[in-house]
Design a protein that fits this description.
Number of strands: 9
Radius of gyration: 17 Å
Strand order of the largest sheet: 1-9-8-7-6-5-4-2-3
Bound molecules: ligand NAX, adenosine-5'-diphosphate
Shape: globular
Number of helices: 13
Number of domains: 1
Strand content: 5-15%
Family: Belongs to the NnrD/CARKD family.
CATH architecture: 3-Layer(aba) Sandwich
Distance between the termini: 34 Å
Binding site for (6S)-NADPHX: 46, 96, 142, 213
CATH class: Alpha Beta
Largest sheet: 9 strands, mixed
Structural class: alpha/beta
Keywords: ATP-binding, Lyase, NAD, NADP, Nucleotide-binding
Binding site for AMP: 183-187, 212
CATH topology: UDP-N-acetylmuramoyl-L-alanine:D-glutamate ligase
Helix content: 40-55%
Subunit structure: Homotetramer.
Amino acid sequence: MADAEEWIEWDVARARDWIAVPRSDDDKYSRGVLGVITGSHDYPGAAVLGVEAAMRTGVGMVRYTGPRAVAGAVLARRPEVVTISGRVQAWLLGSGMNPARRTLVLSGELSQAIGEGHPIVLDAGALDLVGETHGAAVITPHYRELAALLGGRKGPTVEEVAENPGEWAIRAAEALGATVLLKGAVTHIAQPDGIRLTVSSSPGWLATAGTGDVLGGVLGALLATHHEVLKYDPSKLAPLSATAALLHGLAARRASGGGPIAALDVAQAIPATIAALLARSEG
Ligand SMILES: NC(=O)C1=CN([C@@H]2O[C@H](COP(=O)(O)OP(=O)(O)OC[C@H]3O[C@@H](n4cnc5c(N)ncnc54)[C@H](O)[C@@H]3O)[C@@H](O)[C@H]2O)[C@@H](O)CC1
Ligand SMILES: Nc1ncnc2c1ncn2[C@@H]1O[C@H](COP(=O)(O)OP(=O)(O)O)[C@@H](O)[C@H]1O
């Protein structure tokens, strides 16, 4: 079992260094374009939540090329989003998708996105594609999803993952060769190179539908805005993932003020959370 002392708790002081503040010579392309293929007929809201969160985290552009039927809902919420194919510098794939219902066309589009070799977040219905990635890839399962991903006779049960999430995050990172962000009351980030980070400060109010989709958007935006460094140093995925989880928890706390929240509230609280974090205040 992992030694608890090997885990580093991520904090505001560390996270500040992983927010890309636009410079005077930046434009939308230099800041980074996030490509997004998420959502489905069954879960269109997951795409809306992830895109909203990415825009609120700060990114040059979001290019949404998921199912046409979902694009309307995304555009209704965020007309800034571009829905034609084109150049991207990072991808967010899978939130609100069901791999059992993946069409041939969608399979091709997902494979093509992965094949580009850009930094990539694989969430929910794209977790099974982790073996196809090359380059910087982070998966964002919760306990049930990680148990399913490590399935087969040697895989853990959901209860085993829940009892020892850090250990299973490490094992998954080693077995899958990817950065693992394992969601839960404590979020564990493990990387094959041995980096192990936790985020323990999120309020329990975050345990509500759609907040995982919001986290995917936050992380996607951080990858897009750090695409240059990730090209030559994929190990930076771990601090970026921990920063995403910390921001997510801080935004939830800010939106909550001690009371209940909905997922969209968390996304909407992100800009003020980032501003406070950059100003070195409480975040
Ligand atoms: N507004 C939206 O569009 C939302 C979409 N979501 C998407 O929904 C998909 C499934 O995510 P989940 O986290 O639910 O996947 P899980 O693997 O946790 O659950 C899969 C299914 O198992 C059943 N189930 C599991 N645990 C259960 C329990 N304790 N009680 C009752 N039923 C249970 C539910 O039918 C659930 O849909 C993902 O693609 C995710 O991105 C969710 O994020 C919720 C919000
Ligand atoms: N008890 C809890 N305390 C704090 N955060 C939690 C708790 N339970 C879940 N979370 C966080 O809420 C989010 C839920 O994500 P996920 O399980 O993917 O939900 P969904 O699929 O509905 O979006 C994750 O970021 C997770 O870390």
